[in-house]
Amino acid sequence: MDYAIMTGGDVAPMGKEGVTAMHKVFDWANTSRNGFMLVLASNQPEQFDWAINDRLDEMVEFDVPTLEERERLVRQYFDMFVLKPAAEGKR
């Protein structure tokens, strides 16, 4: 296995078996020669099982973008997907 993708929709229905499934992923990672990166994303990280949180080295919080950042994102995507294609004659 080169990679694994699991979502809350995959794990949540497993209940307590979800922790076992995550342990299997961690066990696989210990034998991987490619290195390992686990990315968890949640609006409520405190709801992760303690066994999962205990294995996390670092948590990064992403705040809601400021008004200026949102304007910059809109401008960037407008330029990329509207202005540039229009200038190139694409629809």
Summarize the structure.
Keywords: Coiled coil. The chain has 4 helices and no strands.
Fold and architecture overview:
This is ATPase AAA-type core domain-containing protein. This protein has 91 residues and is mainly α. The chain has 2 domains: 60 residues, no CATH class; 30 residues. The chain is built from 4 helices and no strands. The protein is elongated, with a radius of gyration of 20 Å. The N and C termini lie far apart (40 Å).
Question: Which features would summarize this protein structure in a list?
Answer:
0% strand, 91 residues
Give the secondary structure arrangement, pairings included.
Blueprint (H helix, E strand, L loop, with lengths): L7 H4 L5 H15 L18 H4 L13 H21 L4
Order of helices and strands: HHHH
Give the strand tally.
Answer: 0
- General form: elongated
Query: What percent of residues are in strands?
Result: under 5%
Could you estimate the helical fraction of the residues in percent? 40-55%
Number of domains: 2
The helix-and-strand class reads mainly alpha
Pick out the low-confidence regions: none
Termini distance? 40 Å
> What radius of gyration results from the CA coordinates?
20 Å
